[in-house]
Amino acid sequence: MSVYEYSARLIDGQEQSLSAWRGQALLIVNVASRCGFTPQYSGLTALHRRFHERGFCVLGFPCNQFGHQEPGDEAQIRAFCSTQYQVSFPLFAKIEVNGAHAHPLYRYLCKALPGLLGFRAIKWNFTKFLISPVGEPVRRFAPAERPESLADAIVAQLPPAGAAGATGPVA
After folding, report:
1. Is the pTM for the entire model greater than 0.85?
2. CATH of domain 3-157
3. Catalytic residue positions?
4. With 0-12 CB in 10 A as exposed, 13-18 as middle and 19+ as buried, what is 158?
5. Which range has the worst mean pLDDT, 8-12, 50-54, 106-110, 157-161?
6. Distance (Å, whole) CA 44 – CA 88
7. Where in the chain are the domains?
8. Across the chain, where does the E strand assignment appear?
């Protein structure tokens, strides 16, 4: 199994297979607009811009399961991310990450990389999953882990220079 076997709706409503990012390192993050960690959008955007040309992409999945901190619809979320944080990475439609209605991608990620003490559930907004260029989850980062601190882990997963790999859909 790999993340490439999953698809999700982009924030504009189009269904998108994650196989579009085959060959790239990914950082999959559940995000929210009204969270104490929301300023991490700046760090995520900086990481995306810094490493995108080397085969890296951040994928943001808005979620309203934690303190109702993502109450808006897709248009509101996109506007907020664009105007407040100049987000340049792909955003998806709002999903659930825990429970009976959790998106299949997140069920897979949580099973592949359980959190602290082996708990599979996502604890809060801005939980981050680093994915290798072959689509395998390699590391889970807690919400409080600042995006800037992930640079070394990301570099270790970047495809080799000159490796063929899609740059993925345009955000």
Report:
1. yes
2. 3.40.30.10
3. 35
4. middle
5. 157-161
6. 9
7. 3-157
8. 7-9, 15-17, 25-31, 56-62, 128-131, 137-141
